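quick q for whoever's on today - can somebody do inverse folding on this one?? i tried earlier but teh output was garbage lol. tokens:
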């Protein structure tokens, strides 16, 4: 690979001129968030922006887009941005914060919606990078592909794009790049890491069965509330007693629902369990342990029916290719200097790696610091999560261009 910093600076020379327009467009996306697989207006606006700049694109599925700039011979570099938002009410205090709810297509209910994970920053960064490469074809050669992906928050989007033929609408990438805005990095910094950077994850809904009875006659029933409670406590031993100390893992029971009245023993209980791990072996062990513990507790409680397990929100490990990461890190070090930093493994999960894994493409995923006041920065998915406008928006564009330029400049 090669990296020409003079060419990179030329590609990025319009940042000052486009800053105001990019900030206004960012505010539009921030004020109009859309839920996973419902990003219709977001996708339409992205398409309109690409058309206005003369950048070729194709739709993939209902709300995915792939923009392609072919500029002579050379490598094919793809960069991905997610575009969906969260069912969460914003409380950032920003003058442009989201206030409009959205109707969830599955439940039919109106839910507050916000970009509390920063995906609006990601899509604006990729749009800015596409514009920069489009405006300066004399400074690079090859092909730059922007993948604008829906539904990262529900782990559906990358798979949906694959199922709808994303591999057929873009040239085969030589490398796949991605970034995520974070509060855990210094504002304006870019952080890289070899190997496991984001955990793999799965959630499971467990339904256990009891036997309904009057609360004053518990001996006539089987109490699923007590059963579920023992399961919750026993699950806490998976990480503390079954996972090797050097490995990192999390098992969380986020919800336990049973019954509706104090003097009625219900017939069933439901638990929602979320897990995280940094390798497949640990994840497989956690899954086996959850089912083993649930079945054993059900037997001990005289449950009249086998428990039910429904798995969802399944995310793969994001495991950065060492050589690709080293190439990007070298480019970041040269361009950003002290703002190029190490990134600790993040105990969150992404479907970013689904497409490059399926296509057999090396990838790397880095972090982007979004808050000048790092000590008080809210975490992703916090109602107050709304990154500083600058330097975040500029840095997001720069990071994608600099990383891609390690392959596209000489």
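ok took a stab at it. sequence:
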């Amino acid at each position: 690979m090669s990296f020409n910093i003079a060419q990179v600076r030329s590609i990025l020379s319009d940042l000052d001129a486009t800053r105001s327009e990019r900030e206004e467009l960012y505010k539009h996306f921030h004020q109009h968030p859309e839920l996973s697989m419902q990003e219709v207006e977001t996708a339409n606006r992205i398409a309109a922006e690409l058309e206005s700049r003369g950048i070729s694109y194709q739709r993939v599925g209902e709300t995915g887009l792939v923009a392609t700039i072919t500029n002579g011979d050379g490598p094919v570099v793809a960069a991905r941005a997610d575009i969906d938002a969260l069912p969460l009410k914003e409380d950032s205090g920003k003058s442009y914060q989201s206030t409009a709810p959205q109707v969830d297509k599955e439940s039919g209910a109106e839910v507050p919606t916000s970009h509390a994970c920063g995906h609006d920053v990601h899509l604006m960064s990729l749009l800015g990078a596409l514009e920069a490469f489009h405006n300066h074809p004399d400074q690079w050669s090859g092909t730059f592909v922007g993948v604008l992906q829906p539904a990262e928050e529900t782990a559906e989007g990358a798979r949906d794009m694959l199922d709808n033929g994303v591999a057929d609408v873009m040239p085969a990438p030589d490398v796949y790049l991605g970034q995520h805005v974070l509060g855990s990095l210094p504002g304006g910094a870019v952080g890289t890491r070899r190997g496991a950077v984001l955990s793999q994850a799965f959630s499971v809904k467990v339904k256990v069965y009891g036997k309904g009875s009057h609360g004053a006659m518990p001996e006539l029933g089987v109490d699923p509330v007590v059963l579920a409670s023992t399961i919750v406590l026993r699950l806490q031993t998976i990480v503390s007693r079954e996972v090797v100390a050097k490995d990192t893992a999390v098992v969380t029971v986020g919800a336990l629902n049973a019954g509706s009245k104090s003097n009625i023993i219900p017939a069933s209980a439901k638990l929602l369990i979320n897990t995280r791990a940094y390798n497949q072996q640990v994840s497989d062990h956690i899954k086996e342990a959850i089912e083993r513990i649930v079945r054993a507790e059900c037997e001990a409680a005289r449950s009249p029916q086998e428990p039910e397990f429904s798995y969802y929100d399944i995310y793969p490990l994001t495991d950065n290719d060492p050589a690709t990461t080293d190439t990007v890190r070298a480019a970041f070090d040269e361009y950003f200097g002290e703002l190029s930093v190490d990134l600790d493994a993040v105990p969150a999960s992404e479907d970013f790696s689904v497409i490059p894994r399926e296509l057999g493409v090396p990838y790397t995923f880095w972090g982007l610091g979004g808050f000048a006041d790092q000590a008080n920065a809210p975490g992703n998915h916090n109602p107050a999560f709304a990154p500083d406008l600058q330097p975040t928006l500029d840095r997001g564009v720069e990071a994608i261009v600099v990383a891609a330029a390690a392959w596209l400049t000489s």
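fwiw DSSP finds eleven helices and 18 strands in the chain. also The longest strand covers residues 200-209. so keep that in mind when u check it
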